[in-house]
TrEMBL record:
Name of the molecule in the record: Kinesin-like protein
Highest classification ranks of the organism: Eukaryota, Viridiplantae, Streptophyta, Embryophyta, Tracheophyta
Keywords: ATP-binding, Coiled coil, Cytoplasm, Cytoskeleton, Microtubule, Motor protein, Nucleotide-binding, Repeat
Chief location bin: cytoplasm
Subcellular location(s) per record: Cytoplasm, Cytoskeleton
Single GO term (MF): ATP binding
Length: 462
């Protein structure tokens, strides 16, 4: 399911307090800015006679706290990311005007100093459930037009891949580290800070020589959606009964750009001139995209630099975007300040189409189906074993019965044979008796004849 909404890029302006050099100028310090914070306006003075007023979504004076900046600039974007939309928070401005301070300050010792990155990660960690949701980060720098991994510095020249259908940008090969707690957040940001290119210039003792991009990948589970059946796209059409796990996947980009610099002012030399050239080139191509988008031009030169390719979704894309433009107070930098202010003004005209996409959580679904298959397989195996055992028992019983039958057969054959033998014996004995009887009868007859003869002789003698 997909929900879309129009959402203008929000732009806040922050002015840095005077730095040590500016304070040292004392009464000689000349400023070109005047804040009208209550009506969210900045008056930019070109000279004593000419000035222009600019309206912003918010104006922060030099005493504004990091907490307030987070709450006004970043919090609405983070909340939106927690709801499933993509988001971008970015700082843009001349070198030494407070971009890294606003975005990347760790504030480990003093929590009030914490910048947008730490606060955003802290906010997300406290709003999600580690049981059902997950958060992972990639931290990259764009240095001399090469994308490098700040968490795994051996990975350089990471490709930027754009999905031709969805326009989604990915960086295959970049480390994606799952985050569990705030301590881990500090560790990773510290590693990133150590690996980021920085140099001492006349404008800033810790000047970033690369654009830093923290990408927070968030995945939140939605309650199971009641559906009777769901079609699983595959070669064969299957249907899965029951609940369908849904997730919201969103991405938050927090970008600390390197600052534009004039080499005559920054005093860059040797390799640093090369760095400054690349920084200025990528910022100028970002400026061109912002102009084209603000003017609704039909061609947006996104492909002109890696920076604009990486920020494709942030301006004119599907992300909710908030931009802080940082300026210094000094009149010496009027022209850079003016160009920063105009960049912010143009960015305010850009309207993004934020989009919420509910996705079927195929990973969980796959696991669920896999569990089910496992369960059925082990059930089947158990049943098969049971059947096997039953079969073996039956076979055993059959064998016993067969043996019994065989024995029975053997026994009865023998009995019949014995009986027959006995019968023959009886018949033989009867036959002998009959013979004996006949013999006896013969003898009797002889004896009877003798008796008759004797009686006759006796009678004659009398
Ligand atoms: N609002 C602020 N309050 C106090 N100190 C600030 C503020 N903004 C900037 N600073 C200080 O000013 C100096 C320059 O700031 P930072 O390094 O953030 O500038 P940057 O715009 O990131 O510069 P670059 O583009 O050269 O990296 C740092 O010492 C920083 O601590």
């Amino acid at each position: 399911m997909c929900f879309s909404d129009l959402c203008r890029v929000r732009v806040a302006l922050r002015i840095r307090p005077k730095n040590a050099d500016e304070l040292a100028q004392g009464a000689d310090f000349d400023t070109c800015v005047e804040l009208q914070a209550e009506c969210k306006k900045l008056k930019l003075k070109k000279n004593n006679w000419a000035s222009e007023s600019y309206q912003f979504d918010e104006i922060f004076g030099e005493n504004s706290s990091q907490k307030r900046i987070y709450e006004v600039v970043a919090k609405p974007v983070v909340e939106s990311v927690l709801e499933g939309y993509n988001g971008t928070v970015m700082a843009y401005g001349q070198t030494g005007t407070g971009k890294t301070y606003t975005v990347g300050q760790l504030g480990k010792e003093d929590p009030s100093e914490r910048g947008i990155m730490v606060r955003a990660l802290e906010h997300i960690l406290s709003s999600m459930s580690l049981e059902t949701d997950s958060m992972a980060v990639s931290y990259l720098q764009l240095y001399l037009e090469s994308v490098q991994d700040l968490l795994a510095p051996e990975k350089t020249n990471i490709p930027i891949v754009e999905d031709s259908k969805t326009g989604e940008v990915s960086l295959p090969g970049a480390a994606i580290v799952e985050i569990k707690d705030l301590e881990h957040v500090f560790q990773l940001l510290q590693i990133g800070e150590t690996n980021r290119h920085a140099a001492d210039t006349k404008m800033n003792t810790e000047s970033s020589r690369s654009h830093a991009i923290l990408i927070i990948h968030l995945q939140r589970s939605l309650k199971m959606k009641e559906e009777n059946t769901v079609s699983i796209p595959s070669d064969a059409e299957h249907t899965l009964p029951g609940d369908l796990p849904l997730v919201l996947k969103s991405k938050l980009l927090i970008v600390d750009l390197a600052g534009s610099e004039r080499i005559d002012k920054s005093g860059s030399e040797g390799h640093m001139i090369e760095e400054a050239k690349f920084i200025n080139l990528s910022l100028s191509s970002l400026g061109k995209c912002i102009n084209a988008l603000a003017e609704n031009s039909s061609h947006i030169p996104t492909r002109d630099s890696k920076l604009t390719r990486m920020l494709r979704d942030s301006f004119g894309g599907t992300a909710r975007t908030s931009l802080v433009v940082t300026i210094g107070p000094s009149a010496r930098h009027y022209s850079e300040t003016s160009s920063t202010v105009l960049f912010g003004q143009r960015a305010m005209k850009i309207v993004n189409t934020i989009r919420l996409k509910e996705e079927v959580d195929y990973e969980t679904l796959y696991k669920k189906v896999e569990d089910e298959v496992d369960h059925l397989t082990s059930d089947m195996e158990r049943q098969q074993k049971l059947r096997q055992r039953e079969k073996m028992q039956l076979e055993k019983r059959l064998k016993v019965s067969e043996a019994f039958l065989h024995d029975l057969k053997m026994t009865s054959t023998m009995q019949i044979e014995n009986l027959e033998k006995e019968k023959h014996q009886f018949e033989y004995a009867i036959k002998r008796l009959m013979q004996e009887l006949e013999e006896k009868e013969g003898q009797n007859n002889v004896l009877s004849e003798k008796i008759v003869h004797l009686e006759t002789s006796l009678n004659e003698k009398k």
